[in-house]
């Protein structure tokens, strides 16, 4: 039976798990057609669809569907869908594909990501001339889990060692270390680890006269300590009685008046 009119084939852009790629990863100025029109009932052909799908931020193009299906009535709930496939460059969800993804570890280093001490990131191996940088890897971890926390400390930076390390530069390239099953028979390689480092959470202390000017050291009493900062818990409010007339350090010729926070 001859069919006349216009039919469609839907177009989808999916990740390594078969899920539709979120619109937030689209690049301004690029076209992302969601369907293709053709003669109703006509079979699709090789030339009906672009050989390569459009680019997405944070994704690497993988391939497209084999040519199949036909142009169908738009009201048909079972309209054929032609898919373009992509791999996410970095993901916190285990892709269960060790052939194309490798792990890197973000270690809270005596702190915590919620209840966890470490978080794993999977990095796509085949990024060509546009390798994954630490900035991209870090941003994915922090967007999913936030920064690690540590009691009475404030997150400072990520370093390459648990102690006495160096800050990891944003442009540092995150590379697959290569397979070595003889040295590492369980996994074939040792994942690279990035370690959280912290600074002590504290508040500065100043000793001022009633005009708001610093009191000279000449008025300090030998043997009395005059701390310049007080440690505390990150984001915890400073108590209004952190110092009182009895606990504040004494100064020659001065009487305690108040504290200001």
Explain what this protein looks like in three dimensions.
This protein is mainly beta. It has one helix and eleven strands, in the order βββββββαββββ. It has one helix at 134-145; strands at residues 6-14, 35-39, 59-64, 81-88, 90-91, 101-107, 118-124, 153-159, 192-200, 202-204, 229-231. It is elongated, with a radius of gyration of 30 Å.
Question: What does this entry show, briefly?
Answer:
The protein has one helix at 134-145, and strands at residues 6-14, 35-39, 59-64, 81-88, 90-91, 101-107, 118-124, 153-159, 192-200, 202-204, 229-231.
Instruction: State the order of secondary-structure elements, H for helix, E for strand.
Output: EEEEEEEHEEEE
* Beta-strand share of residues: 25-35%
> Would you report the number of β strands?
11
Mean pLDDT: 92
Give the biggest beta sheet: 5 strands, mixed
Category by helix and strand content:
mainly beta
Question: What shape does the CA trace take?
Answer: elongated
Give the low-confidence spans.
none
Rg over CA atoms: 30 Å
């Amino acid at each position: 039976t001859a069919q006349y009119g216009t039919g469609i084939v839907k177009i989808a852009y999916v990740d390594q798990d078969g899920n539709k790629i979120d619109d937030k990863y689209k690049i301004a100025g690029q076209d992302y057609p969601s369907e293709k029109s053709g003669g109703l009932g006509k079979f699709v052909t090789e030339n009906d669809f672009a050989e390569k799908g459009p680019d997405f931020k944070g994704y690497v193009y993988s391939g497209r569907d084999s040519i199949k299906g036909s142009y169908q009535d738009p009201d048909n709930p079972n309209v054929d869908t032609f898919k373009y496939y992509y791999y996410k460059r970095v993901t916190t969800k285990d892709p269960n594909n060790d052939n194309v993804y490798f792990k890197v570890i973000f270690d809270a280093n005596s702190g915590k990501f919620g209840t966890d001490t470490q978080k794993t990131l999977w990095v796509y191996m085949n990024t060509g001339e546009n390798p994954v940088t630490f900035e991209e890897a870090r941003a994915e971890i922090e967007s999913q889990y936030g920064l690690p926390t540590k009691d009475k400390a404030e997150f400072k930076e990520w370093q390459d060692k648990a102690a006495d390390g160096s800050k990891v530069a944003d442009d540092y390239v995150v590379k697959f270390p290569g397979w070595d099953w003889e040295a590492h028979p369980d996994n074939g390689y040792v994942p690279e680890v990035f370690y959280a480092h912290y600074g002590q959470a504290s508040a500065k202390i100043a000793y001022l006269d009633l005009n708001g000017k610093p009191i000279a050291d000449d008025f300090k009493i030998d043997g009395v300590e005059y701390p310049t900062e007080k440690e505390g818990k990150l984001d915890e409010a400073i108590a209004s009685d952190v110092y009182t007339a009895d606990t504040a350090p004494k100064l020659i010729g001065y009487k305690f008046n108040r504290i200001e926070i």
